[in-house]
Write a structure and sequence with these properties.
Distance between the termini: 81 Å
Strand content: 5-15%
Largest sheet: 4 strands, antiparallel
Strand order of the largest sheet: 3-4-5-6
Helix content: 40-55%
Number of strands: 6
Radius of gyration: 32 Å
Low-confidence stretches: 1-19, 350-362
Mean pLDDT: 87
Shape: elongated
Order of helices and strands: EEHHHHHHHHHHHHHHEHHEEEH
Structural class: alpha+beta
């Protein structure tokens, strides 16, 4: 028999200003058909109440037949639905936490009882969290078993930490880290950092990333982890393949930015994020030697800067030679017009010429 009682995970009511969860509402329904059930719940241990929440979340009220058969060998067919609810309430009151889990699931998965104990007094905020917890603890997949083992090592559990364990990249499953990465949103942010690092670092193997996370897991900070790996990025996305293949050019990567910055006495080492972005890049033109910066636009690569040692002004002839080479490689190159003599007085002194040089098209 299916009882016409649906649990909504977003359902909320208010009693004397107190917000009620899906479990509270179900308990209220059971207390209505079996007076004293609510009082029994209030007297019960936190672990028993968590087992009750699990039973409610996994559908014991909507589909009670299997539960009742496991408890006393009797199904609910032919009974009025309120009588079935009373039967479920009486059965729940007679069972221990472990017995409720076994009657609900047909088994007691290893570690599930310990997880319920770590959840404390309050039920998780939605029924789906209990369904996910059961799925995790009963899975036979190697990755899910790893997640379950990590979960069992946590000293405290709630819906947010469960979400983090389920979301986090397997290489980052360390109990110490999960004391810093405390919800699914934070786990997804870390996953994004890990995936980006994999894209731009040839040395970012799973073993190397796992060790890097383990070394800093106790005091883990996502931005520091990402910055440490960014300095090793040696394969940023291609901006202009023709430049990469030309023997006169050397692509500056985050991994080489500090050395090139020392060579040219500039601040390239502070531009590592841009160098790894795939939309802006710097190239050393060895015949100069000069540095050309190229921005990848929708219309194609565009030369946006030419720099000499110490960012000093580049002789016009050298700039023309470099632009000629780059134009032949398919890079758009523009040359800024000089300020007319009759207006030059407006571009110096108190007015400055910052706007004139805004795009650095030297």
């Amino acid at each position: 028999m299916t009882i016409p009682f649906q649990l909504g995970t977003s359902l909320r009511c208010s009693i004397s200003g107190i917000a009620c969860s899906y479990a509270d509402i179900a308990i209220g329904v059971l207390d209505g058909v079996a007076p004293g059930f609510l009082f029994h719940c209030l007297q019960a241990s936190p672990r028993w109440r968590q087992a009750l929440s699990l039973a409610i979340a996994t559908g014991v009220l909507e589909n009670p037949d299997e539960f009742l058969v496991r408890v006393n060998g009797e199904a609910s067919e032919g009974r009025p639905w309120k009588a079935v609810q009373r039967h479920v309430a009486d059965a729940l009151r007679s069972l221990t936490a472990k017995e409720i889990v076994r009657a609900t699931l047909g088994e007691t998965p290893d570690g599930l009882g310990g997880c319920l104990a770590k959840l404390g007094d309050q039920p998780m905020r939605d029924s789906g969290s209990y369904v996910s917890l059961v799925g995790l603890m009963t899975s036979t997949e190697p990755e899910m078993k790893l997640r379950a083992r990590t979960l069992l090592q946590l000293d405290r559990l709630d819906a947010d930490r469960l979400s983090a364990v389920l979301e986090l990249d397997p290489i980052a499953l360390f109990p110490d880290l999960l004391r810093r990465v405390r919800c699914g949103l934070e786990a997804r942010r870390l996953n994004q950092r890990i995936n980006a690092i994999r894209l731009v670092c040839s040395t970012a193997t799973d073993d190397a990333l796992r060790q890097s996370i383990a070394d800093r897991s106790i005091a883990f900070r996502g931005h520091e982890f990402a910055e440490a790996w960014l300095s090793r990025a040696d394969k940023p996305p291609v901006i202009c393949e023709a430049i990469d293949l030309h023997s006169d050019f050397e692509r500056v990567t985050p991994a080489t930015a500090e050395a090139v910055g020392r060579e040219f006495a500039n601040c390239l080492r502070t531009k590592m994020g841009g160098l790894a972005s795939g939309v802006w890049g710097a190239y050393v033109w060895r015949p100069g030697p000069l540095i050309a910066t190229v921005t990848l636009c929708v219309e194609g690569p565009l030369l946006t800067g030419i720099y000499g040692h110490g960012n000093r002004m580049v002789p016009a002839e050298h700039a023309r030679q470099l632009k000629g080479v780059l134009t032949g490689l398919g890079v758009r190159c523009f040359t800024r017009r000089d300020v007319p003599d009759e207006l030059r007085v407006l571009s110096v002194g108190r007015f400055g010429d910052a706007r004139v040089n805004e795009f650095e098209f030297d």
